[in-house]
Amino acid sequence: MKPASISRVEDMCNRFVSNFLSENLSSLPYELSHTNEWKESEDKLEEITLKILETLKSVWRNPAFCSEFVATMNEGTYVNNIIVPLINACLSNNHFGESEFITTFERQSIASADRRGDRRVGRRPDIMFISKEDDKYYELMYTECSRIICTKQKEKDDDIKLWRECNDGLYWAQKSRRLKKEQFGIIGIQVAGCRLSLNVLIRDELEVHRYYKLHETEISIRYSNDPSILADFIYTLLLFRNTLIVNMSLLRCAHDRRSNRNLDSSTVTSPPPNS
Question: Could you tell me the superkingdom of the organism this chain comes from (predicted)?
């Protein structure tokens, strides 16, 4: 009834445990800046692309995501079975180290709670990317998701919510670090139905928060015989990775801030219009 254990599998487990702590993770490059260039080699980007494609393959083969069932699929299923695995694949084998992680299940934003003050509850993004630097946590990416079938009102509400979360995150980061203006930013990803918008919020030289849409693409949740759709989706995820790498580098090389005087005089732009 119960087969004996397989020695080759046991050997694989032994090698995995032995090699785990000796893995040589490349360090994050120092003081990068946002330019029109990729920060990693084409070989590395090809490696990440293969991981994304492998994730998509499992999604495409899952009958739960066929057109017959998408109308009844809830937001949690969409987030946990498609969006989060794709983000994990996109950020795999990175330079970030062991102090960075992705949170889901609408964990409370510490940046939002701090800015609201008076022990008020902070906003709860669907997904966050968090980095720990010098015993302080920074929220560098927020994601708001809808169901695969998304209403216009939901899209508009999430757009404004995401903009507010990014403002909270940028204010929180600026409280303790002298971050480079026109460079460092907080990333906001909005998933509205099968559309993904990649946005970034930065502070300009006049202390004004500027919210930009970097790219928008269709999420390839089902097989398509049009490879250009898939290529554009992959490009967007790689652009997200590239932007995050630069922001992480800028955060790590920034000096500590001793005064919050400049924060009090900053200007926050109006919420983005719903497109």
Answer: Eukaryota
Residue 26 lies in a domain: no
Q: Give me the domain span that covers residue 58.
A: 39-268
* Rounded-to-integer distance, Cα 187 and Cα 207, Å: 18
Q: Which helix (H) or strand (E) holds 30?
A: none
pLDDT at 6 over 50: yes
CB atoms within 10 A of CB 31: 12
Q: Let me know: does 109 contact 165? Beta carbons within 8 Å.
A: yes
Residue 275 has pLDDT above 50, yes or no: no
Residue 24 belongs to some domain of the structure: no
Is the pLDDT at 4 greater than 60? The verdict is yes
Q: Answer yes or no: is 7 within a domain.
A: no
Strands (E), 109-184: 127-133, 136-145, 177-178
Contact 132, 99 (CB under 8 A): yes
pLDDT average, residue stretch 187-210: 93
CA 160/CA 96 separation, integer angstroms: 29
